[in-house]
């Protein structure tokens, strides 16, 4: 077999299924208005929810840290890579999340696989929501524990599965806080009480809740007034920076630092990116308005698009999925949006289930109502076009 012909054949297969993916190269920084192939586009698909990714104060904080500490951290945290900025950021995360301690990972993805593969051992079971993020799925795959999938946010099904798995050693329930492709919130208060009743531990991935949910933006735990055994998050969404973290007890931090392979065998985050996150947390703590405007804008968009007859998912989060159905139709819809100057890619299997392809809109605090009206106008024009909406 010729290597390249095998690759070509596989590429043809995904193209036939409308599942081919390619890169879009932006020639401008993170903002609602960007340039793609010399065309101006309004981006409604970024995770830069609070508009902090290009904030001048954060750039300045990062620059001054880089001047002193350099760019690369030059080692893993357990060898020569740990410095004062990792320590400051971990303290900041712990205080923001109101936990004893926090441990940084190089990304949310690595935090998820590190946590699940080290905490869940042979003889254990992980109960995982069917719509959990790919990094949770991969963490389950890397773990030697058995994985049992429960129906999406379905407490009855979770309870049934908790009952059926009593013979296992340790039991973990793992869930996204905000589901990244559906924009809905896991009923964490009820999940935690249920898990407690059956002696199971709870792991929550608050990638999309951090900086967004709760009266002070502390995330899903503040929103429900609860604390899981393990809280995972990312610094690459509302914080506008890069990196992942686990927040919890000192002993949990110590355990992960000694057992999580994606922590141990990874070069530490660059100090300047940690300085950026420290500043981003401070801004979030001081500035409520960004978060409030985000809720107002996402509510406005949901209401308007529902009025136009679209199937819109989710609640108060800035993730606004519009269900289209087929992969081809979703791709076509996204293409038509681009012709109207709106950039929002189609989300297809395996990211979402077959027949549930969608346009995943997100809104940020930086979008103006003029931008939003342009978005609504494009959807209005497309809703009267039978060819696109089937
Ligand atoms: C984005 C995301 C991650 C991954 O975080 P990164 O820091 O980008 O690696 C993990 N979990 C969920 C739910 C996410 O949406």
From TrEMBL:
Cofactor(s) the protein requires to work: pyridoxal 5'-phosphate
InterPro entries named among the record's database cross-references: Aminotrans_II_pyridoxalP_BS, Aminotransferase_I/II_large, AON_synthase_class-II, AONS_Archaea/Proteobacteria, PyrdxlP-dep_Trfase, PyrdxlP-dep_Trfase_major, PyrdxlP-dep_Trfase_small
GO biological process per UniProt: biotin biosynthetic process
PROSITE patterns registered for this protein in UniProt: AA_TRANSFER_CLASS_2
Pathway(s) annotated for this protein in UniProt: Cofactor biosynthesis; biotin biosynthesis
Annotated EC: 2.3.1.47
Pfam families: Aminotran_1_2
Keywords of this entry: Acyltransferase, Biotin biosynthesis, Pyridoxal phosphate, Transferase
Single GO MF annotation: 8-amino-7-oxononanoate synthase activity
Top-rank taxon: Bacteria
UniProt domain Aminotransferase class I/classII large: residue ranges: 40-379
Keyword tRNA processing: no
Modification N6-(pyridoxal phosphate)lysine occurs at: 237
Enzyme class: transferase
Signal sequence extent: none
Keyword Transferase set for record: yes
Reaction catalysed by this enzyme: 6-carboxyhexanoyl-[ACP] + L-alanine + H(+) = (8S)-8-amino-7-oxononanoate + holo-[ACP] + CO2
Free-text function comment from the UniProt entry: Catalyzes the decarboxylative condensation of pimeloyl-[acyl-carrier protein] and L-alanine to produce 8-amino-7-oxononanoate (AON), [acyl-carrier protein], and carbon dioxide.
Family: Belongs to the class-II pyridoxal-phosphate-dependent aminotransferase family. BioF subfamily.
Binding partners and assembly: Homodimer.
Name of the protein in question: 8-amino-7-ketopelargonate synthase
Origin species: Halalkalibacter krulwichiae
Gene this chain is encoded by: bioF
């Amino acid at each position: 077999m010729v290597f390249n012909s095998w690759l070509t054949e596989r590429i043809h297969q995904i193209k036939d299924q409308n599942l081919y993916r390619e890169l879009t190269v932006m020639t401008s920084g993170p903002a609602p208005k960007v340039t793609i192939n010399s065309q101006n586009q309004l981006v409604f698909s970024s995770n830069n929810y609070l508009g902090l990714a290009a904030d001048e104060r954060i750039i300045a904080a990062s620059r001054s840290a880089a001047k002193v500490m350099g760019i690369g951290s030059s080692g893993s945290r357990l060898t020569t890579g740990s410095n004062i900025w990792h320590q400051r950021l971990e303290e900041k995360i712990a205080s923001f999340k109101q936990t004893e301690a926090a441990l940084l990972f190089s990304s949310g993805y690595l935090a998820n696989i590190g946590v699940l593969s080290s905490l869940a051992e042979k003889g254990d079971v992980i109960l995982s929501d069917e719509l959990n993020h790919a990094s949770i799925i991969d963490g389950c795959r890397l773990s030697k524990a058995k994985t049992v999938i429960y129906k999406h946010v379905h407490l009855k099904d979770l309870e049934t599965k908790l009952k059926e798995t009593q013979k296992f050693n340790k039991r973990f329930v793992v869930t996204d806080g905000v589901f990244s492709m559906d924009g809905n919130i896991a009923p964490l208060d009820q999940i935690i009480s249920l898990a407690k009743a059956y002696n199971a531990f709870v792991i929550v991935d608050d990638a999309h809740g951090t900086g967004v949910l709760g009266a002070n933006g502390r995330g899903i735990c503040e929103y429900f007034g609860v604390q899981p055994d393990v809280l995972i998050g990312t610094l690459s969404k509302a914080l506008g920076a890069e990196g992942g973290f686990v927040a919890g007890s000192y002993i949990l931090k110590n355990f992960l630092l000694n057992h999580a392979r994606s922590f141990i065998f990874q070069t530490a985050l660059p100090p300047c990116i940690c300085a950026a996150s420290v500043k981003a947390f401070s801004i979030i703590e001081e500035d409520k308005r960004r978060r409030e405007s985000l809720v107002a804008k996402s509510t406005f968009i949901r209401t308007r698009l529902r009025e136009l007859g679209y199937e819109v998912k989710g609640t108060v989060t800035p993730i606004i999925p519009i269900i289209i159905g087929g992969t081809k139709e979703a791709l076509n819809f996204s293409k038509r949006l681009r012709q109207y100057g709106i950039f929002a890619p189609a989300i297809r299997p395996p990211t979402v289930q077959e027949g549930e392809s969608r346009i995943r809109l997100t809104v940020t605090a930086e979008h103006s109502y003029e931008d939003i009206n342009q978005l609504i106008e494009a959807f209005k024009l497309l809703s009267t076009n039978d060819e696109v909406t089937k």
